[in-house]
Amino acid sequence: MDAFYASVEQLDNPELRGKALAVGGSEQRGVVAAASYEARKYGVKSAMSSVIAKRNCPDLIFIKPRFERYREISNQIRAIFLEYTDLVEPLSLDEAYLDVTENKKGNPSATLIAREIREKIKNKTGLNASAGISVNKFIAKIASDINKPNGQKTINPEDVLEFLEKLQVRKFHGVGKVTAEKMYQLGIFNGFDLKQKSLEFLIENFGKSGLHYYNVVRGIHLSEVKPNRIRKSLGAERTFDTNISSEIFMLERLQNIAEEIERRLQKSKVAGKTVTLKIKYSDFTQHTRSKTLPYFISSKDLVLECAKELLFQEKMKESVRLLGISLSNLNTEKKEKKEEIAVQLKFEF
What we know:
By secondary structure, this protein is an alpha+beta fold.
């Protein structure tokens, strides 16, 4: 979907249409969750500090996110996907992979299917979607960004290798800013440069990811579309209006976060063993601390108990602007068997 959260807000409130809009954060604090295309012209983007976003775009309007509304529309969109194939792998509320090799419409053209789906989404929700079409997930993902917003791009099988050789490495899905800088230092600027490097060279410089880079630049990506994608973690975090230095206030915020996590765990019907505490200080440095338990937990009390322990591991050096808790090592892993799932119990003595 194109600027999904922001587009939903503009859809529901006509007064916001055509204006620079940021979902999430505020003028003083927080982080932008999504930005309208009008805001993106000023360099505003997701995960950007609200203060920097406002500096880039003085007329920026901040809106609180409404995830229930986004989820409602996301479900409508997913229902459209399922009219064409059951092989739908959601990545988030606004993005998914579809395998339409064999589809319910009997349409041999993935390009035409993508156009049809986009039209249905527009008619059903009033929102624009973009699509990428190719032989595997990696290339389709890259292609989906090429003609945004409200467009699509097909990379045909015979064009894949040439397309990848010309592609700048920073546009390779999964290559972030740090990795791109390292590639530049090694003389790798596009797919052609990457292709000249041996497997041994790439593994030596990029570890396990080296094999991935070696394969994808040759058009090899064998990951299937998985309709039942296993959740790996679940968490929640809060950015505060003013920095806090009192541990009493921190514990109060952690309790609220633990309650939110319990609600999400119950809704997803999962539990986890590893609790991670995330702390972002006033100077924007970020620390994480984790603890793995011998049993699965899902109650707010036990999550909070672990978070407290992690909080007091070290003395705070700065005031805190953000706290977050996540639970991983979930019992959704296929290797876990039902009989192995133990839950900590409390006994009265």
